[in-house]
Design goal:
about 170 residues; mainly alpha; 2 domains; about 0% strand
Length: about 170
């Protein structure tokens, strides 16, 4: 599994580097993918990697660094919680917290995370998601809200969530 994810991640990295430094490939890339790229991703010299590449790197690192259950948890925090925060925040967000982040988006993140913890506890009954899951989801929402580090959250959020989960689960 790790080899497959790693191969796909390396391919995405290579494609991003090629589009940034080869005009022929940049033109082809634009024709194929420009409809799905965000505006800030279209400046290939300024933003070497797209959100999708950071996504793949985040998944790869989670599978590499964490036990299976924690990897699944941290990847799903990125996929479900962050996505729901963005969708709800953009559609219904009225109260801004920091930058374009809203209270409504953060609440959606946490509520989605709570459902995720219950679902994973049911899916992996021998693994205790309750002990660290709820606190990790809350801290991940704060982390995502604050943007402490200037790394794309598709990379930083699953890695942060996995490490926090392990710290809480093993040391507290």
């Amino acid at each position: 599994m790790l080899a497959l994810i790693g191969t796909g991640t390396i391919m995405m990295i290579v494609l991003d580097v090629l589009k940034a430094y080869t005009s022929t490939f940049e033109n082809l890339y634009n024709k194929v993918f420009s409809a799905i790229l965000r505006e800030d991703e279209k400046n290939f010299k300024r933003n070497l990697f797209t959100g999708g590449t950071y996504y793949a790197i985040g998944i790869f690192l989670s599978v590499l660094l964490f036990p299976k259950e924690v990897a699944v948890f941290s990847i799903l925090v990125m996929i479900w919680c962050d996505t729901m925060a963005a969708l709800i925040g953009k559609k219904f967000g009225k109260k801004k917290l920091i930058g374009n982040k809203t209270i409504e988006g953060s609440v959606a993140f946490v509520l989605t995370g709570v459902l995720l913890v219950f679902t994973l506890q049911y899916t992996f009954p021998d693994f205790n998601f309750y002990k660290a899951g709820f606190v990790t989801v809350f801290l991940a929402a704060v982390f995502e809200q604050q943007n402490f580090i200037r790394i794309n959250d598709n990379l930083s959020l699953p890695v942060f969530s996995g490490f926090i989960f392990i710290i809480i689960n093993n040391f507290i």
